[in-house]
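Exercise: predict the fold of this chain.
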Amino acid sequence: MTSACWVDPCSEVQAEETGLERPQGDEAEREEVEVPCGDNQPEGSLGQEEPGGKQTLSPKHNGMQEATPEGGLERVQREKTQTQKERERFPHMTINQKSRDRGSVSGAGPKERFLRRSFPKGLLTCSYPDRYRQQQAEEPRGPGPFYFFGGANGAEIVSGYCESRGWKRIDNKHRQDFKLKWCETKSPATYCNFREGEQLVYQIPNNKVLTTKIGLVSSLREYERVCSKVNHGQALRRLKMEEFIPTTFRMDVKEEREAFFAQQEGVSNNESHMWICKPTGLNQGRGIFLMKSQEDIAAFRLKLQHAEDSKSNKTMHHRQPQARIVQHYIKRPLLLKGKKFDVRSFLMIACTAPYMVFFRHGYVRLTCDLYDPSSNNLSAHLTNQYMQKKNPLYSQLKEDTVWSMESFNTYVNDRFRVAKGLPRDWVLGAFAKRMQQIMTQCFLAVKYKLHCRLGFFDLIGCDFMVDEDFKVWLLEMNCNPALHTNCEVLKEVIPSTVEETLDLTLEIFNKRRLNQRILPLASQRDFVLLYNRVFPPDLLLACSKSDTSSEFNPKSTKKTEPKSWITDCGFPETMTTFPPHSGPPLCGKECEEELKEDKNSLVYETEEEL
């Protein structure tokens, strides 16, 4: 079955209404260099900086001559004569200088256009036909099965898993005979050529409705708005957004932007809340800043106004930064040994047809320094490893910046159980259940939006914070979560998480293809089943004893699906917790309008990855 291509075309990210003006110098580079997906920056991207200021090409492009600030022109001239014959033999792989100067290249591919934009004129060399032929010859052939891995995040773990099963790795991302494709970045070709029911592809193509800041907030707001108008009967109680999401304003929506600044008028610094501003789709702390005073808020307002004025001035052409949200900063978090922390847990969608959604414990991330809310150092406020590595003491404190959930549980038992009147093992009990409840509600908010095809699966990193009153807050959800293992706790957690993700995904995929009963799952170990399309959480134990084979027959499901679930506008008529659903996402008019609003707030992949 040929699937339509759902990924938005490569485009420059622009704010819907407005955004911050582009900063200058190093700050501009940090904010504007976008990671295509998730909270892990691909290590194999073009233009990596090495100590000393050299700019090198990634291993993925090691067939192209290295471009360096020094000696680049001389090297081009030296090899010009040697490569002339190859240029004549492979004209389709050569960049036409004359056409490039005109601003267009006839027949040039995305990679060539990306290289032209990324390097100074004169530094681009000819193509690499010899190496290209060598790579083509080395590509494994035969019956397979084959797998493709793009990027560096988790490469060793996924490759080790696949090769232990006898699978062969292919490097040509355009080959279509793969069994599994695991990529950091999402390209249209991956989904356009996807064969449903035959192949597995990591990352649901439109997971942005859950894994970008604006996407998550918009989905939850819409879900809450719809649910407030319908009768849920005996469904599980829903949480209100304010119970687990800090107060949030979208700066790309004029009404919300004006409401935020109106709220701040007349408020003194003593009464003012602390706010944190985040770009919708960036990660690793890039583009984030704090607003601690009325002066900070006023300066931010001026920047937005300047950007709006520049946007309306047609004579000025510059790229708009990403849309942003402003969120209430949790100023009094629970501290572990005086340090701020958050908890990374995992939401895994092992299958979308039918939905099979799981939760897994992750780990605790702590700052290197003691918490000081007045500190201007972002590493004191943001706990991710990317920020902590900037601390001079990181190499000494590395093992202390990541705790296991068991260590966290022991610490809370010893220090807070009696003082706060908590039940024993609060972390592994009440806290875990609260995270599961929040994750389930977030999933329910997007389950009619996500593209559902047999073979799509996803692993999402969910970041939670606990305040001093032990209230649990969801900070964000990240696609392509970091899978590095640079400390002992991560070496215990990450490989087992990835391996069980693949085990469960493969078992469900194979059972679904063979029309077999899916539950129970022999490969289920640490993941907890949250949602399996029909049965609510309190019936999951009983569902393994019932015969559900007919439920997973796509033909019978399509015929027996009650029409009453969907109204003319596409929204569920009765929002019971687990109505049947299959096929493409079902969105109503309001949903479509909000998705249109969000179209300019996405993180697009670089052309080099297309």
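Check your answer against the key: The chain has a mean pLDDT of 74.
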